[in-house]
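Hey,

The postdoc asked me to send both predictions to you directly instead of through the lab channel. I've kept everything plain text so nothing gets mangled by the mail client. Protein one:
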Amino acid sequence: MTHSLAKRVKAMKSRVTVRAWEYRQRNLAKGTWHQLRRLLAHSSHAYALTEQSARALLAEGHRPEPVGERLEPSKVMLFVSTERLARIDDKRPIPVRLGVDFLSSRYVALVPFEVEGPRPRS
């Protein structure tokens, strides 16, 4: 085998190994990333919260989204109305996307899009 052919074979094996690892990670996630993206698609705004603010919202009856518990480290993600968020002083706006700000925040408040007219029944 020539040197250039051996180099190409090595590069191909490397790509196949990486692709297999990516597929394995995606399959082990059991749809978590898809669910997280879907959650963000339904959010108009996102805010990083302190632990105190998140605990207060949980005590008021806001339910954490299950997808946050499947991440590592786990996150507390709550859908909260704009009116309720206005009363929280220590919130910090973060982009509604899978970026550093969102992924590094342990407690996140999401504001759902406002739906005009009656909401469709599920």
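Protein two:
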Amino acid sequence: MRYQSRLRMFGLPLLSVALGPDLASQQARGVARGVIAIGDIAVGGFAIGGMAVGIISFGGMSFGVLPIGGIALGIVALGGVAMGGVALGGLAIGVKALGGLARSCLFGVKRIALDDQTVATDLISGASILGDGRVVLIVNLPAIVDRHSKFRPEQGDSIISGILLSHADRKNLRAVPAEARS
């Protein structure tokens, strides 16, 4: 099916529709170009198609300012796989990314956003992959302090071990010889 409206804007037809093969012109896929483009391959201000390129685009593969589709690449991308300045999707990669597996990239530092179901502990709130490939954990310091204070035994003569020691405990630990600590 092929259709182009007579009304033109910016040198393009207002509406262009090109779906399926056209045996007369020997086209295997319909390529629609217009302000509003609907086709197997659609290029326009508002594009809908298997592959869509436009300011606002909907399709299996979408490219543009606001692409929405299975694979979306653009400034604000929404899709199963979304890449852009702001990306929302199952796999989202962007400066600001939200989704099932979201990866934000900003100034050479990549941040992995982990949702609450991925992390089974309240002591770790996320992870980062640095520019040189090293992985670091983002700790939840208030939760660590809270947990440490709950499990701290009564103050006595023994020195406790743990991730957080008081200044007095550190001084006492330094005063005890290493073989006596074991």
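Summary for protein two, as requested: The chain has three domains: 2-106, 108-150, 152-181.

Thanks,
C.
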